[in-house]
């Protein structure tokens, strides 16, 4: 049988489609937000003082809620190093979406590797480590998410950016079709296959990127590169 992961033309089309969709949402959302009374430090949907540290904290709580709903508990998320006071102008909703997908993946891998075998207590689950790059003059704001969830085999690395590729139970996709909410916390911990490629599209829309480096048998490091707004043109498909 043919593997959808090998349909390069389909993936290229979906990349263009979702990039266009993100652009339409940004334009429409920014227009509507500008017509309303914006909160302090906001211009429309853009927060002039977006804090990666605070976003990691808030997103970790959301990811832990989803993970606990599935496994009964969740790994701790520890911010190990970097500038906790760093702020820059960006769309916080985009960063939240990207971080949520990466933290959910890290939590699921950690729980399935260390907790489900029954040989470890909840307090001994390895934490997920987050680092925020230091320096206001850096080209990008970089967030690193590192887990000890067993890693990804090198033969599978190309597939992780494929739409619909997942190692979770395929029944999750069918059950999720009954849900209509967008960006809701009722989403499953894993199983849809769209999380990573769309997260990368959100980052690339403003000139950033998402990269994954894995050590099979140990864990995975995810890097989020966020450019400061105004430095890149819109990537029209």
Determine the fraction of residues in helical runs and give it as a percent range.
Answer: 25-40%
Shape: globular
Secondary structure class reads alpha+beta
Number of E strands: 8
The largest sheet has its strands arranged as 3-5-6-8-7
Q: What features would you describe in this structure?
A:
With 237 residues, the protein is an alpha+beta fold. The chain has helices at 8-35, 52-71, 92-115, 171-176, 195-205; strands spanning 42-43, 46-50, 77-82, 88-90, 128-132, 140-147, 209-215, 219-227. A hairpin with a 3-residue loop joins strand 7 (209-215) and strand 8 (219-227). Helix 2 crosses helix 3 (92-115). The radius of gyration is 18 Å and the shape is globular. 30% of the residues are buried. The model has no long low-confidence stretch (mean pLDDT 84).
Quick recap of the structure?
The protein has 5 helices and 8 strands. With 237 residues, the chain is of the alpha+beta class.
Helix-strand layout with pairing:
Layout (H helix, E strand, L loop, with lengths): L7 H28 L6 E2 L2 E5 L1 H20 L5 E6 L5 E3 L1 H24 L12 E5 L7 E8 L23 H6 L18 H11 L3 E7 L3 E9 L10
Parallel strand pairs: 3-5
Antiparallel strand pairs: 1-2, 2-4, 5-6, 6-8, 7-8
Features:
38% helix, globular, alpha+beta, 5 helices, 8 strands, five-stranded mixed beta sheet, 237 residues, three-stranded antiparallel beta sheet
């Amino acid at each position: 049988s043919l593997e959808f992961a090998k349909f390069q033309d389909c993936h290229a089309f979906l990349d263009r489609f979702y990039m266009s969709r993100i652009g339409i949402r940004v334009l429409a959302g920014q227009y509507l937000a500008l017509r309303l009374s914006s909160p302090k430090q906001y211009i429309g949907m853009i927060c002039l003082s977006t804090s990666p540290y605070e976003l990691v904290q808030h997103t970790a709580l959301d990811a832990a809620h989803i993970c606990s709903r599935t496994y009964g508990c969740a790994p701790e998320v520890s911010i190990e190093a970097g500038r906790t006071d760093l702020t820059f102008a960006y769309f916080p909703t985009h960063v939240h979406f990207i971080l949520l997908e990466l933290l959910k993946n890290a939590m699921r891998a950690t729980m399935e590797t260390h907790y489900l075998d029954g040989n470890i207590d909840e307090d001994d689950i390895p934490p997920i480590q987050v680092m925020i790059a230091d320096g206001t003059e850096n080209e990008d704001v970089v967030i690193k998410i590192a887990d000890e969830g067993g890693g990804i085999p090198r033969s599978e690395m190309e597939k992780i950016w494929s739409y619909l590729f997942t190692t979770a139970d395929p029944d999750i996709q069918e059950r999720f079709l009954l849900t209509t909410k967008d960006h809701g916390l009722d989403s499953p911990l894993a199983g849809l296959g769209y999380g990573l490629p769309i997260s990368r599209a959100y980052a690339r829309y403003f000139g950033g990127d998402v990269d994954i480096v894995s050590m099979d048998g140990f864990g995975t490091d995810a890097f989020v590169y966020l450019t400061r707004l105004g430095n890149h043109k819109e990537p029209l498909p």
